[in-house]
Specification:
Two copies of one chain form a homodimer. The first copy, chain A, contains twelve helices and eight strands. Chain A is 53% helix and 9% strand. The C terminus of chain A is likely disordered. In chain A, strand 3, helix 4 and strand 4 form a beta-alpha-beta unit. With 286 residues, chain A is mostly helical. The longest helix of chain A has 29 residues. The first copy, chain A, folds into two domains: 163 residues, Rossmann fold (3-Layer(aba) Sandwich), CATH 3.40.50.720; 109 residues, 6-phosphogluconate dehydrogenase C-terminal fold. In chain A, the strands form three sheets. Chain A has a three-stranded parallel beta sheet, covered by helices on one side. Chain A has a three-stranded mixed beta sheet with strand order 6-7-8, covered by helices on one side. In chain A, strands 1-2 form a two-stranded parallel ribbon. The interface between A and B is large, with 93 and 93 residues.
């Protein structure tokens, strides 16, 4: 378990609860964090040297910010046990695959790119819990070079943690996530920063209600992680930003021109889609 | 109680629970809705004619969409009991005051413009509950012509319902609400409509997680109410949209230019402001 925060810690807890692991070894640069993970019972032991930590492991999960992926791949390439499988939890897959190829000089068969569509605005092992992936989707984006057995083992791991596993290609993943996750986070961060700068005394926030609280909850997410996502999935995010910016201008023009019918049509279509989404996901744990 | 939906119905329930009312008379054009409100015990009786309903009332609360305010003011002007006080729950105050002045030919002393900062994405009397205003803010925007006794009575009414009452001028209210409520709703509606149009089979929504659900919850709000708000608070909303659009372009440029430091600074400032907001409002009921 390279990186034992919300994502790695929750997977460790889920697999242990399911009886699907023997020993879980944590690795990262921060010994204090890792000791906390041991104290919580999330991992059994740790090593601050990644190359040492992965020796003898049959499954390696990389749950570090996207900006730290390349360093991990450099460290583990060549020291893995025969038959070991490596997968990750990064939110942008093309960038992870590029880092992997740069570190290994080729596309190794033992790496299965993955992304659990779950999380909270919290971070750190303190926030981890065994049920995080229950009923949630995990997307795997295996490459033509990826060993089918490796993909099957990663799928089985996530299913043991309670997740629903889908496969799609790297590019499609990055577009879908830019739309449903990266753009919303960017809008929430930008709105809150914009309002905070407008209002010196933060008086403006005193009159915000529940809708604002829900809308901006994701602006409490980890800034480093989201900076890395913006850099890593740049092209898909810029395309979505452009698309959204045009739609926002259309609505702005309708408001400027008192075009009540166009405004109503946009809001009605949005409500229809959002109400349908509520029904689809209404049975999940959250 | 003119309009017995989420806002009017919840106030009726709260005042009855507090023992602050004798008889509550509902008015709107829809007898079936009003009968439902009687069946739920929210109102005591109703009249589909507004002018008849307000006769003898000592307090009138107007809780209709902004587009219906003018018709209500036309109907009640001249038929109110001596000493009767009228207030409203509209989300944009300048537009309500304009409608009032147009209906009355002057600014009457008996009207206290008001706005409870509370609500859910639900609507209708079925969604109303007595605790909606508990610990929530209500903004009153009395005018120079408004009778101070009338303002005090409206304040006392909201305090009986559990709310915290603040006063500010009409223009400041409309700017603050454009920032913290109207803009977020517009962004959520636009994003969901934009994604729904991109994804014919709605496949895109299947991979959305809890962050997206929270962010877009307000896109399930009543389209007619929000169309009316966009028209009524047009100037303040367009100013905020412009301000936000510029900030979004700044972030887009930073992403395009791989300017990791600028991205991080924006996200960190947003997280700081949003985390402070969580603390401030952490004690409220919701």
């Amino acid at each position: 378990m390279i990186g034992v925060g919300l994502i790695g810690g929750s997977l460790a807890r889920a697999l242990r609860k399911a009886g699907a692991v023997r020993e879980i070894i944590g690795a990262s640069r921060n010994a204090a964090h890792l000791q906390k993970a041991v104290d919580f019972g999330v991992i059994d032991r740790f090593d601050t040297d990644v190359a040492t930590a992965v020796q003898g492991a049959d499954m390696v999960f990389v749950a570090v910010p996207l900006g730290a992926m390349r360093g991990v791949f450099d460290a583990i390439n060549g020291v893995l046990a025969p038959g070991a499988v490596v997968t990750d939890g990064g939110s942008a897959k093309a960038a992870v695959v590029e880092d992997l190829q740069a570190a290994c000089g080729q596309t190794p068969p033992w790496f299965v790119p993955g992304h659990p569509i779950a999380g909270t605005e919290q971070s750190g092992v303190e926030a981890s819990f065994a049920e995080l992936y229950q009923g949630r989707r995990v997307i795997l984006t295996p490459l033509p070079e990826t060993d089918a057995t490796a993909t099957a083992r990663v799928r089985a791991m996530w299913e043991a943690a309670g997740a629903i596993v889908n496969e799609m290609d790297v590019g499609h993943h990055d577009e879908v996530l830019a739309a449903t996750s990266h753009l919303p986070h960017i809008l929430a961060f930008t709105l809150v920063e914009s309002l905070a700068r407008m209002s010196e005394k933060r008086e403006i926030f005193e009159y915000a209600a529940g809708g604002f609280r829900d809308f901006t909850r994701i602006a409490s997410s980890d800034p480093v992680m989201w900076r890395d996502i913006c850099i890593a999935n740049r092209d898909a995010i810029l395309a979505m930003l452009d698309h959204f910016g045009q739609d926002l201008q259309v609505l702005g023009s309708a408001i400027r021109n008192h075009d009540a019918d166009s405004i109503l049509r946009i809001f009605q279509d949005a409500k229809t889609a959002r109400d349908a989404f509520t029904v689809t996901t209404g049975t999940t744990a959250e």
